[in-house]
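This part of the workshop introduces the protein records we will be handling. The question running through the whole workshop is how a given chain folds. To make this concrete, we reproduce a full record directly below:
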Amino acid sequence: MPLDHQKYVAWNGERFISWAEKVGENTAAVVCFFLGANKIEQQGYKSCMALLKLADRYSIKRLEAACAKTLTYTVRPSLKNVQAILKSGQDKLLDKPELETPPEASQYGFTRGAEYYKRGDN
């Protein structure tokens, strides 16, 4: 067997899952889906490798966030889903908490509010 091909013999599903668990639980869930999506486990290796290599281009934190976002809207995640989320930056939206801003008072001072419209029991 050529030397280039020998390194692929060591690949197996457990290795990909343990590698994905180092990134996070959502990434591990996507890798498990890739491994189980085909009749033969080895057919998912290329997708798993491509997914895990996204951490080199982006970051581990962003990859985990993208996998989490993918799993929130589909039960059949794909590599293209995760890549699109990372490319568009949608994974960064999970980090920002949505702040509720209280209604501002009117700049003109004409806002009467609820107290003005209460009926008095005189």
Summary: Residues 3-93 form one domain. Residues 10 and 65 are 29 Å apart (CA to CA). The mean pLDDT is 83.
